[in-house]
Write a structure and sequence with these properties.
By secondary structure, the protein is mainly α. 59% of the residues lie in helices and 0% in strands. The longest helix is centred in the first third of the chain and has 15 residues, at 57-71.
Length: 221
């Protein structure tokens, strides 16, 4: 199964510092695949732009520099830079999200969980942090906590498609609830648009739960 693999957060707008989103990463799955945001920083994790305080120019430059370290594979230097940012700007969630990503990539799942929770303390509406927290908690075997993380993310950001997809994966592969999985995948398709891979999972799930196939779309006359 293919991987969506861009583990970095991009500098798009000042919003990313207060409520930045994580970029796609995942792992091969037997029937489905977890994903994160298809664009790291262009949406604001559920927080409206008007509610975000101006970010100091120095913080923006320091954040950009830290991201460059991350992209260059200098994980230790990037970690130190994000830690300094997180300490200097306790109102900003972005540094903690990136710390979580760094920890998750190096297999430090408990540290990643702590970082994503810290990001959510700073901005409870950060959809990326909530989604990533769910992924990490699933990997830790905390299925109930992962479910709750995805559900909170959906409540905070109803249009955030990755949370529906990941919740569907959790229901399908880990909680043995195919009907709930099907419902989440349907929500995902409604938001994200057609996806052949997800559509294939839905066909298989409909067979398992005995649900009828959706009516064919009528072509315009």
């Amino acid at each position: 199964m293919s991987r969506w693999s861009n583990p970095f957060v991009n500098v798009g707008a000042l919003l990313l510092l207060a409520a930045c989103q994580s970029a796609p990463h995942g792992e091969p799955r037997p029937a489905a695949q977890e994903v994160a945001s298809p664009d790291a920083a262009k949406s604001a994790g559920g927080a409206p732009a008007a509610s975000v305080a101006p970010v100091p120019e120095r913080a923006t430059q320091q954040y950009t520099d830290a991201l460059q370290l991350m992209k260059a594979g200098r994980a230790s230097d990037a970690e130190l830079a994000f830690k300094k940012l997180a300490s200097a700007y306790p109102e900003l969630a972005g540094p903690e999200v990136n710390l979580g990503l760094l920890y998750a990539q190096s297999g430090k799942l408990n540290d990643a969980e702590t970082a994503f929770k810290a990001a959510l303390e700073r901005n409870p509406g950060n959809a990326a942090a909530g989604n990533e927290l769910g992924i990490v908690e699933r990997k830790l075997g905390k299925f109930a906590e992962a479910e709750a993380a995805y559900q909170r993310t959906i409540a905070a950001a109803p249009d955030y498609a990755p949370a529906y997809l990941n919740l569907g994966v959790l229901y399908d592969l880990y909680l043995a609830e195919p009907q709930k999985a099907l419902e989440q995948f349907e929500h995902y398709i409604q938001i994200a648009g057609d996806n052949k891979q997800v559509a294939g999972w839905m066909v298989e799930l409909r067979k398992r739960v005995g649900a009828p196939a959706p009516a064919a779309k009528k072509e315009p006359a």
